[in-house]
Every structure is written in C-alpha cells, then in structure tokens.
Amino acid sequence: MSFASNIREEIVHIQGDCDLCKKAALCALIRIDGTIYLSGAGRYRVEIATDYGNVGRLIVGYLHDIYNLKTNISYRRSVLHNTQNYQIDVPYQPHIEGVLKDLGILNDQNSLIRGVAPQYSASYCCIKSYLRAVYLASGFVAEPKNSFHFEMNVSSEELAVELTEIMNKMGIHARLVKRRTSWMIYVKSGQEIEQFFTCVGAVESSKALREIREFKANRNETNRFVNAFMANENRRLDASMEQIRDIEVIIKKGKLDTLSPALKEFIKLRVENPDASLKEIGELCDPPLSKSAINHRSRRLSEVANKIREESNK
C-alpha cells in the first residue's frame, strides 16, 4: 500500500479515550462527508459519501452502535477515477433530529453549528478524535520520499479557522487558503506533519515519517558535502591552471632568471605538482610556508605574468 493508505488504515483503527470521542469522530465525518436534507418539520435524513471502505464501515458502525440508526449502503464506481465510492443513506427516523443535536451538528434552534461543537473543543482526547476524523474524511498527505505536503479540506470557513488554531496550539504551523468551494488547511514542513500524526495518536505513521525525514536529511547532507568538495576541487584546479599559464608566459619571455629565489621555488614546486593545492605547495617549501605566505607568492606570480602580458601588448 501507499504511504497515505497506511496512514489511513492506522488512523481508522485508533480508539478514542472516552465515549464522547466516538461522537466527536462521527460528528466530523458527517460534517465533512455528509449532506443533511430536510423534508418537513423535523424530518431529517442524511447522505454520507466516502471513497474509502474502511471509513464507510467506521461510520456505519458508529451510527448503529451509538444511536441504533438504520442505514442503507450503495456502491458506485467512478469511471473517470476508477475508484469505488460508498454512499451511506440514513433515512428519516423519529429520533434523527435528536441525534444531530446530540452530535453537535445542529444547535437547539436547528441551525448548523459552523465550528467545532463546544462539548468536543473542551476535551483534548475528543479534539484528537475530531482531527483524526477530519483527516479520514478529507485529508491527504503526499509521498514523503518525494515531497512534504499535508492538507485537509472543509466547506465551512469557521470550522477551517478553528481547526487551524487548534493545530497551531499543538505546535503545528498550519496555514489556510480558500479554494473554489472549500477551505484548505495545509502543512509543508515534514517535522510538523510528523507532529500532527503524533498528536492524533498515529504512532506508527509518525515513526515512518520520521525515518524518511532522517534519511532525506542525511542524503541532503551528503549531497551538500559532495557538492562543496567538488566546488573546492574545481576552484583548486582552476587556480593551478591559471598559475601554470602564468609560468608559461614568464618562461616563454625568458624572465625566469629575473625572479626572486622565493618565486623560483614556487614555480618549481607548482610545475612538479600541478594538482596540488596551495596549502600543499606551502608545505613542500623549505622551510614550509603558512597559507598567507604561499598566497602572497601566488599573487606575486600573477602580477609578474600580467605585467609581461601588458608589455607584450604595447
């Protein structure tokens, strides 16, 4: 399975810490994946659609176990995406209005609660359950071997803002952006995506993501070291070739005997060791020279060669 599938499979099996956690999860799943219809005073019915069989089973299980609601399930296959779609219909039943109010989807005035219902936001374990359900309903995480990207999509601006604030309080720098008909909560940091899964209790997913992050960090560090080494080698070779060209100019013009013993020694060592660094040339001198001293000889060689070139061009 893909990384995203493994995460979803782990999260769907996480049990809440209290009885209210199941209601928090069911509330979020209906809020994100469900549509509520009203066909008369108090005559509500609900349709819930999901692309994931394990999420569909979780929803049906909660509806039956907590509220003893009757459900009908149908399956459709998307020709465009070649995926199975599961539709859960909850027909009108006498107590369904009370269920929607108990879940925190409707308030006492039968209006939709736009944010997280107060009974869930007051409890950390219920908030974790709510976040897990939002992820199950609308979450996406990119393959971390390629890039770090996490997102969840909700239709309510109030809910999106509140969830973003909750995630930020957990130390997760979540950001919010408006899409055509929804709001996207997203995270781009691999460390903070790992933090999200840790916070909601997806321990194995968090561990797997951390291992991938560490591997990528080590690989990037190795690449930086190799690139720096190659850059230094290229600079060293360029400097060596430039010095050899200066030496050729001096020798062709018969100016070698006019140089100081120090420059003659430098030229001799450079010709004998064309691939050596300046530091290595300095160590071969008698007595050995410091980096500053050998750099001075290199600059002096360049000055002499440039002066000869200028005189030749006159």
UniProtKB/TrEMBL annotation:
Gene Ontology biological process: cell division; regulation of sporulation
Molecular function terms from GO: DNA binding
Residue span, WhiA LAGLIDADG-like domain: 128-214
Pfam families: HTH_WhiA, LAGLIDADG_WhiA, WhiA_N
Statement: the UniProt record of this protein carries the keyword Cell cycle: yes
Residues in Sporulation regulator WhiA C-terminal domain copies: 223-305
Keyword line: Cell cycle, Cell division, DNA-binding
Name of the encoding gene: whiA
Function per UniProt: Involved in cell division and chromosome segregation.
Organism classification: Bacteria, Bacillati, Actinomycetota, Coriobacteriia, Eggerthellales
Stored PANTHER family: CELL DIVISION PROTEIN WHIA-RELATED
UniProt similarity note: Belongs to the WhiA family.
Protein name: Probable cell division protein WhiA
Organism: Phoenicibacter congonensis
Ranges where the Sporulation transcription regulator WhiA N-terminal domain occurs: 21-106
Gene3D superfamilies xrefs: Homing endonucleases
NCBIfam families documented for this protein: DNA_bind_WhiA (TIGR00647)
